Model the fold of this input.
Amino acid sequence: MPLNASQSSHAATSQPSTPSTAVKLLMAAGMVLALGACGSQPKPPAAASASTPAAVTTAPASRNVAMAQLQPTQGSKVSGSLQFTAQADGSVRVQGSVQGLAPNSEHGFHVHEKGDCSSPDGLSAGGHFNPTGQAHGRFDSSTHHTGDLPSLRSDAQGMASIDFVSRGLALDQGPNSVVGRGLIVHKDPDDYTTQPTGNSGARLACAVITRG
Done:
């Protein structure tokens, strides 16, 4: 027997609602994406181990370079800085400057046998460096001490610039090596005749030549 209108309406409203297939698929996809996002969170960086100290390296002193820091002797104001650099041909280039000299003056300048500037007057550096046993003379002559260097000549401000090349000096471990020797600036000019000092007078500044 056919249902009447009220029975038909009651049947329609009494059926339980069922989610569509599309909605189910969307919900499943959302869950997959959420799980994927949770699994892809970046891990925090691991803390550095306190038991592993950073490596510390110290550059070795160059065997091709030596330095000298001139300090004034007692009552003097003379100071300076020099660099000795070994050249490819075996010579040594000496560069630097000295300040605190009398304006427009000339001064004896020598490598001395001892790397000792402990005495107030600089006499602890000993005599001229002379491993070959030569007589004192000019730097550019055939006969001279290994330690005989070109005299310093200051400008109007009392500064002397130094730049020359020596074929007698060395920075290796040989007998002519100046590393560990003294460096002296004298008060007076070198006369290149008086033995064995050149009559250069008192010592105004002293340095010990060390590896660069």
In short: Confidence is low (pLDDT under 50) at residues 1-17, 48-54. The radius of gyration is 43 Å.
